[in-house]
Structure formats: C-alpha cells, structure tokens
Amino acid sequence: MSLGRPRVSLVVNPASNKGAAVAVGARVASHLSRAAEVRVFSGRSQAESVSILAHAGEDADAVVVCGGDGIVHLAVNALAQGEVPLGIIPAGTGNDTATALGIDPDPLRAADALLAALHAKSVRRIDLGHCDAVPVSPNADGRWWVTMLYAGFDSGVNERANRMRWPSGKRRYDLAIAAEMLRLRSRALTLQLDDQTIRTPMTLVAIGNGPQYGGGKLMTPGARMDDGIFDVTVVGAVSRLTLARLAPTLPRAGHLRHPAVTTYRSATVTIEAPQTVAWADGERVGDLPVRTVCVAGALAVLVPIGPSAPGLSRSEDPAG
C-alpha cells in the first residue's frame, strides 16, 4: 500500500439494477474519498468495462467494483493471479459473491468495511474456477469464474431471457422460467470428476466454488472459496411439479434431501450434455462440453474484519 491515503480505483457498472448503481457509485465515491484517493470509472458497454478493468489496478492499492455479479465476473477475469485486491460494493440484484465474502448489503457500510480492511491489510486469496471457454478479454487464456458454473434448466432460462426483448426486468426472467418449464426435459449428462465418471439423466448441474447463486439459492451450500475444491450438485430427471416444489427450498438448501439430488466434490470437473449451454456468475460461458479446474488462491480480495464469511472456511490474521 502507498504511504498515506490508499489509492482506490472504483469501477461502476451503470447497467446494474436498472441503472441504480450509478447513483450508488456516486455516493460510495464521495464516502470513500474521505479516507482514500479515489479514481472513478464507468464503462458504457461490456467491452469498455473490460478495457477499464484491465488497467484499473495500475497505481492502485485496490480495485473496487460497484454493481452486481456481472461486473464482479469481469473484474475477476482482469485481476486473477495478480496482487491487487478486489473489493465489492453490492449494487446489483443478486450480489451472491459479495454475500459469500461477508460484505454488508448496504453500500455505504460495505464501503466503510472495505476501507477498514484495506488499512488493516485484511486481504485473503480465494480460489477461482478456470475453463477453456471464450475469454472475457480477446487476449486472455480461457475464462475465470468465482461463484457458480451451471448448465441445464437454469442456464436455459438465462439463454431464453437474453433472447427476449419484452417484458423488462424480473418479469422477463419469470416468463423465461415459465417457458422453460413447459419444455422441461432431462438431458444425458456425462460428469467427469477427479476419480470417477458419472453418466446420468439430469435436469441441471451446478459446480460451486461458493455456496450460492441466483440471488441466494444455496445450490452448493457446503462450497467454500478457500478449500481448493469444488462442490457439485446434480438434480436428476424430475417432473415439472417436483422442480416447482424444489425451487422455493433452494434458499435453505432443502433440495439436498430429495432423492433425485446427488452431490460430489472434485478439483476438476468436465460436464457434457447435448444441446446445453454453460453459464457462470450469471454470464454466458458457452456450449458444453466444458472442463473447469479449481485454481487455489487465484484472486486477492478485501474481506471485512470480523466473523468468518459464509463462503470462506477459515479465518486468518488480517495481515496474513
């Protein structure tokens, strides 16, 4: 860290939460500037945000993003295997990575906690997933992801919602869920783990580096971002009624008690299923098959000082 006031690059996603992140970013920048030298950036497109993030760590003690899991995903791909830590101000709709790292959902309280962590050098290195998929940046080697990589029903919903032009917001996502429910079918999944190959019908498969996705769905509740291994959950062939009954249980991990649900642990996972697309952190990865590897300690993050975060398995000395 530089002498005196820490230098922070604050990158705001203007599209997060229907544009609400812009106002949040302005308040956060003013708040941070009381105790730090703050440079504020905002990309008008994903390509511009990628370009900004590629240089945001230069002459900075931390890169802080303000938005949802989408901007976090882009930042992870820019900062992976580097030394500049990432801080997150939650201002999106899901904020699953921030939740897993124990970051307060209130943006100003989150800013205070990140500043305290920066001054105390409360920096942790967490694991990331890496896969040989279309990179975020044209010059990158593959794709990094931080919370969850998934395929099947949920990725199908994302695909459909992305193609729709009407309605807007949450209603579009709800309509996409309804449409995917009508065409629900199991797929022939081949799952290659470290020490076994599994072939089974599946409705969806989720590879968790962290415990949750989709705004609090605890699909892999035991996953921790610092244990060097993925948790994998497979929902087998189920009916529309069963899937509808399982959905409301996900925030409390109730699906794990269902006989159609199986779980595994593996540091390397390959998923293959016909006509199926993988998504990660709410962003499109690409068509299956996809092979992903858990890379231990790949990202430095600012972690609030205090009780252990739900997505971390151990506590460390802030200076560690």
Automatic annotation (TrEMBL):
Its cofactor is Mg(2+). Residues 3-135 form the DAGKc domain. Pfam families: DAGK_cat (PF00781), YegS_C (PF19279). SUPFAM superfamilies: NAD kinase/diacylglycerol kinase-like (SSF111331). GO terms for molecular function: kinase activity. InterPro entries: ATP-NAD_kinase_N, Diacylglycerol_kinase_cat_dom, Lipid_Phosphate_FormReg, NAD/diacylglycerol_kinase_sf, YegS/DAGK_C. Keywords: ATP-binding, Kinase, Lipid biosynthesis, Lipid metabolism, Nucleotide-binding, Phospholipid biosynthesis, Phospholipid metabolism, Transferase. It comes from the Bacteria. Belongs to the diacylglycerol/lipid kinase family. This is Diacylglycerol kinase.
